UniProtKB/TrEMBL annotation:
<protein>
    <submittedName>
        <fullName>Uncharacterized protein</fullName>
    </submittedName>
</protein>
Length: 236
């Protein structure tokens, strides 16, 4: 399994296809943008041109943005080229300067100055390079997994994986501001937030056969709730 281009949880869900789970993978992201105080301002569904089968994830992102009373944007960019000078914003062409101004209008902090083009570095995409250059003191994070349960509740999961044992995932305080951003979004949309952790076996086997669920609230460290086989998680 290619550790950096796949995810064991997504792979299991794609094979087994249980009802109620939605996610964006590959070159597609459901992004939350907020200010430095982790107050969410915008939900964006961002896709590279190579992304496929994104309709369900896009519709879920739009639905959750509506529930939260937040602006929603679809942003598409060409991921086959090294440089981009524009995107497709809400189905209309937009220059990078126009994209920056649109973000400012909906309340996302931006930097001053013009952004003529964005160059795709080896470690990211040209869109991410524009984001780093054009946006100001922001928080941005993606929604990894959405689950609509049979009782109508919707849960947002942050997926975590590492070599730590299943019940010993340590807290990483640098993650907390992004968790706070998701919590703010979930509070606005009446959603539940959980962290889902699985172990990566050495050398790099992403093994979701057992998962641990953590609760999180701002101002506290993640608290371990339950550990269970993946099959129990899917059915629960």
């Amino acid at each position: 399994m290619a550790y950096y281009t796949s995810n064991g949880v997504y792979d299991r869900l794609a094979r087994e296809r249980p009802d109620g789970f939605v996610w964006a993978a590959g070159n597609a992201w459901i992004l939350l943008y907020g200010d430095r105080r982790s107050r969410v301002k915008l939900v964006a569904f961002v896709t590279g041109s190579s992304a496929a089968d994104v309709g369900e994830a896009r519709d879920a992102a739009a639905m959750l943005a509506t529930r939260a009373g937040l602006p929603f944007a679809t942003i598409a960019f060409d991921d086959s080229v090294r440089e981009i000078v524009g995107v497709v914003l809400n189905d209309s062409p937009a220059s990078l300067d126009e994209l920056t101004r649109w973000f400012a209008r909906v309340g996302v902090p931006v930097n001053r100055g013009r952004t003529g083009k964005a160059i795709n570095r080896a470690s990211s995409s040209a869109y991410q390079d524009w984001q780093r250059a054009a946006l100001g003191r922001i928080r941005v994070t993606d929604i990894d997994l959405i689950r609509q349960r049979g009782d109508g509740r919707i849960v947002v999961y942050e997926l975590k994986r590492s070599f730590y044992s299943i019940d010993d995932w340590p807290e990483f305080p640098e993650d907390f501001p992004n968790f706070d951003l998701i919590v703010d979004f979930c509070a606005r949309a009446d959603l539940h937030f959980r962290i889902l952790y699985n172990v990566v076996r050495k050398p790099a086997f992403d093994d979701p056969s057992e998962v641990a669920i953590f609760n999180y609230a701002p101002g506290t460290a993640p608290a371990h709730w339950r550990t269970m086989p993946f099959e129990v998680f899917v059915k629960g």
